[in-house]
Specification:
alpha/beta; formyl-coa transferase, domain 3; 19 helices; 11 strands
């Protein structure tokens, strides 16, 4: 028994953001029906590096636990089929440009008339309202609009994407799932569904710590400072003697004292830089002192000393390091499932960890487009095989 058993989710989206919202719900027991354009399918099927077979593993990972059906939402018969599915669904997620679903007769008012208990998650580049609502956009654009890209990189170089360009997509999907669960809680009390509206840039903007309140109060514009942190030091990445990088994060005076005295063996640094304000005023000196100490050590030795001093630290991990990390293994952060292409498919595990009703990856994504057409259309909607075949011939599925 999983927490979301009994929920039915219709994934009418493509690429990452809204589909990831549905993936999260599916990991905790919801039945997720992936609705794809006949003959084309989700664009994620063709994005990213290919496995040896020529098929992208990314699709198999992000469509895990889902059933695939084909339905042409651009034609009346396909629109009628979706409405029949909506009648018994709990959540529908889509990420078309605002107005697209309305043009197809599948907007919120149309679907609410079929099922007033429906929760509709709508993730688009700029949200359903505002002057930019109809503009297209992907994760890179969202990071730029949110201000996150402006802060990322070194002051003498161009802004860079923070992490990967898909981080805004995954964050938007996460906020979409949170919104769906919140709306379902409201529905439990009132019987009424609602729209969950997320602009792709909004979760990134929400996570920019003090950026907005500081500008609002003082007009101060934060600029790029590389891997350092605006309001604490030492809080940076430092190169080791053997060519690795380690992260050190001292966020208060006690941590800095442990770093200076116990790890570095330089107690004289404490009275020289006694407070965070003093360290920020002489940021370069502090960072250089820590950097010289780290540069004289191999990564393992530096991390051993930092751990012994209880200073927050880590190797700056590559994906190879992640696979070898005992903490990652112990937490099940990387899991393996049989791949429909043969062998094992490795993927990120389920987050969060629930003690009573944990999520799970039951299977990789469906390789065949429309693999579950018969199960859903004949089993769930009660169509005959002949009716399904006729819909297929007319291009509706």
């Amino acid at each position: 028994m999983q927490a979301l058993d009994g929920l039915t989710v219709l994934d009418c989206a493509t690429f990452v953001a809204a589909p990831f919202c549905c993936t999260l719900l599916g990991e905790f027991g919801a039945t997720v029906i992936k609705i794809e354009q006949p003959g084309v399918g989700d664009d994620l099927r063709r994005l990213g590096r290919r496995a040896a077979s020529g098929q992208p593993d990314w699709w198999l990972v992000e469509s895990r636990n889902k059933k695939s059906i084909t339905c042409n939402l651009r034609v009346p018969e396909g629109q009628a089929l979706l409405k029949r599915l909506v009648a018994s669904a709990d959540v529908l997620a889509e990420n078309f440009r605002p107005g697209t679903m309305e043009r197809w007769g599948l907007g919120w008012d149309d679907l609410r008339a079929v099922n007033p208990r429906l929760v509709m998650v709508r993730i688009s580049a700029f949200g359903q309202t505002g002057p930019a609502r109809e503009r297209p956009g992907f994760g890179r654009i969202a990071a730029a609009v949110s201000g996150a890209s402006y802060l990322s990189g070194h002051p003498d170089r161009p802004p860079v994407s923070p992490g990967t360009p898909t981080i805004p997509d995954y964050l938007a999907g996460t906020f979409g799932a949170f919104g769906a669960l919140t709306a379902l809680r409201h529905r439990d009390r009132t019987g009424e569904g609602q729209v969950v509206d997320v602009g792709l840039y909004e979760p990134m903007l929400r996570m920019l710590d003090e950026l907005i309140p500081v500008y609002g109060a003082t007009g101060y514009v934060r600029e790029r400072i590389g891997s350092a942190t605006e309001y604490v030091v030492p809080h940076n990445h430092y190169a080791t003697r053997d060519g690795a990088w380690i992260a050190i994060a001292c966020t208060n005076d006690r941590m800095f004292e442990r770093l200076a005295v116990k790890a570095m063996g330089r107690p004289e640094l404490v009275p020289e830089y006694p407070t965070m304000a003093a360290r920020l005023a002489r940021r370069d000196e502090v960072d250089q002192a820590v950097g010289r100490w780290v540069a004289a050590l191999d990564a393992d030795e530096a991390l051993r000393r930092l751990d012994a001093a209880e200073v927050p630290c880590s190797r700056v991990a590559s994906v190879r390091d992640i696979f070898e990390d005992p903490q990652v293994r112990a937490r099940g952060n990387v899991v393996s499932v049989p791949s429909p292409l043969g062998g094992l498919l490795h993927m990120a595990g389920v987050v969060p960890h629930l003690s009573a009703t944990p999520g799970e990856v039951r299977q990789a994504g469906p390789l065949e487009l429309g693999a579950d057409n018969e199960e859903i259309y004949c089993g769930r909607l009660g169509l005959s095989r002949e009716e399904l075949s006729a819909l297929r011939e007319r291009g509706a599925v």
